[in-house]
Design brief:
2 copies of one chain form a homodimer. Chain A has 351 residues and is of the alpha/beta class. Chain A is 40% helix and 17% strand. In chain A, strands 2-1-3-4-5-11 form a 6-stranded parallel sheet, with helices on both faces. A 6-stranded mixed sheet of chain A has the order 7-6-8-9-10-12, sandwiched between helices. Chains A, B: This is LacI family transcriptional regulator.
């Protein structure tokens, strides 16, 4: 691998001029720049950005930390890959690259992040799957690494975040089901401390309250956010003495497992149990009857995350004068057949 | 963020002792080590591994370069995420971390890799989706960065690779179809220069030859490796005057689009057209009739990739004395209903 010195010798130009040409400075004439770039290509010159980065204290790389649990990968969850295009479209404006940091399933996310921070691989971080108490937010604040979270947390204060509108989803799902005559509405909520579970449950409780429906803790089914979790949720619903007539799911792939368990028991979604799923997802499109769920644009969310992050970084904030605005990301209801039946006043199916 | 100096002052121990304690050297007594680690945690000490890495010339990070095309992400292709667990289980033995480098769909993979090499983010690379001519292999060889490819190429010589057994898949699919009486067997092959397409086509031609079946170029359908490509393949098969009685697919998600187009035309897979898919995939499990396809373990492949890579790295090769062995990764046939019918001698359906 050739360095800048060999390149300068080969061209018989000063190292300073070669450096300015390679770095696109304006004070180099076009012909010289062209000669330098051609020679750099021919000689296999590779800039040592690591040395440069250490001087500047930057790597020009932005990290997206994701969870890589067995369930996520086996389910073919495409959420994070779906963000990359939008993120990259913004980062490439500033010659920044995106890398993904998959936290192993058997490792504590805080310990993992601490190590990745120590490795100084990235200039800034996007973290996701925020917990109710999330030490990663304190870590990033303390170490002064610019970051944005996908998801809120009770930890930290005044940090930039973007979150999906779990409250809005819970409210519009309950409203829709109540309008169809349902009053015993279950939810499948996450069994861990992920923050979205708290928001979703709050939204659900408030929506019930608005409609004058008493909250029944037995209708909150705690399961894993996975296809298998959906199967488990259906199983538990079928065991309830006073069975709900409707269920709202909080994770996109739950619907698949839920349908499977219901079908095994001869309970037809959209006829015997109203089902509202979460995010519209390629795999869930196969479900019959079609699933009522919520649509959002992953590429647009990627753009918003990247712009929010850059607005917090001193080197780029002037490009984003509106600053890092926290944002609740909307989801739009997509009506399907899975919640299509109406209950009469007697609680019996009407059509 | 506290550095090692502040930590030493706080504990009133020499910087050298603190450093040896943090780095797990044996010549520090247990009590001192414990005190140092507790204080490091309390004070928010973060080791500056970047400085250390520059001295050692290492980052302790391994990169997995993936393609992040719109089709891949929208399809929820879980292939690469499926590798991470196996890769990490090996890398963690050596305190190495895995990062994923998603090459934007609008960027040339060679230019992208050149930039990532210059950024010095990783010690070694795993690259995938190798092309017939793949300049990335020359780049990595020239810059002396340890690497392994997932997929072979006509570029380079004597580099470590692991490849799925596309030849074996083509051969066993043709054998199976011929045993069922088929002789007009189409294949859906990739429309780009990805190397696996060449291997697959060669395997198909040799298998036909073994059975004394003339190769008919009109039965090689060139489409994108995507669900949409599968739809297109079915469309083109339906337009053929002398329609094939069977088709073999080279990409896992093609089957979904292919089924859809066939169903639209009233052509039933497994009754009117025999279909053999590629890799068994969660989404394709929904297909009715069930798809005959091939099974492999992504986690095991991740382990093999990581061990092969480490065997090429001077710092780790002594752990892997068998060296970097190139390897054709087997796939096992999973019989389904999609190729279940037999043709009689007259080329008509028998059952």
């Amino acid at each position: 691998m050739k360095g800048i010195r060999q390149l300068a010798e080969h061209l018989d130009i000063s190292i300073g001029t070669v450096s300015r040409a390679l770095n696109g400075k304006p004070d180099v004439n076009e012909e010289t720049r062209r000669r330098v770039l051609v020679a750099a290509e021919e000689l296999g010159y590779v800039a040592n950005q690591s040395g440069r980065s250490l001087r500047q204290g930057t790597t020009n790389v932005i990290g997206l930390m994701i969870e890589s649990s067995k369930e996520t990968t086996e389910n073919g969850d495409n959420f994070f890959l779906g963000l990359t295009g939008g993120l990259q479209s913004v980062l490439s404006r500033h010659k920044l690259d995106l890398i993904m940091l998959p936290c192993p399933s058997d490792e504590d996310p805080h310990e993992y992040l601490k190590r990745m921070v120590a490795r100084r691989v990235v200039d800034a971080m996007i973290i996701s799957a925020t917990q109710r108490i999330d030490k990663r937010i304190d870590l990033l604040s303390r170490t002064k690494i610019p970051f944005v979270t996908l998801g809120r947390s009770a930890s930290g204060s005044n940090y930039p975040w973007i979150d999906l509108d779990f409250d809005g989803v819970a409210n519009s799902a309950v409203d829709r089901l109540v309008a169809h005559g349902h009053r015993r509405i279950a939810i499948a909520a996450p069994s861990n401390d992920i923050n979205l579970g708290f928001i979703f449950l709050d939204g659900y409780r408030h929506a019930l309250e608005r409609h004058g429906i008493a909250f029944d803790p037995s209708l909150v089914i705690r399961v894993k956010s996975s296809e298998q979790g959906g199967y488990q949720a259906a199983h538990e619903i079928l065991l309830l003495e006073d069975r709900p007539t409707a269920v709202i799911l909080i994770y996109e792939l739950m619907a698949i497992g839920l349908y499977r368990r219901l079908t095994e028991a001869g309970v037809i979604p959209g006829r015997d149990l109203a089902v509202i799923g979460f995010r519209e997802e390629p795999r869930a499109k196969f479900l019959q009857p079609t699933l009522t769920c919520f649509r959002m644009s992953l590429p647009d969310l990627g753009v918003e995350l990247a712009e929010t992050l850059l607005a917090t970084m001193p080197a780029y904030s002037h490009f984003y004068p509106e600053g890092a605005r926290n944002c609740i990301w909307p989801l739009e209801l997509v009506p399907g057949e899975s919640d299509g039946f109406h209950l009469g006043n007697n609680g019996q199916r009407r059509q």
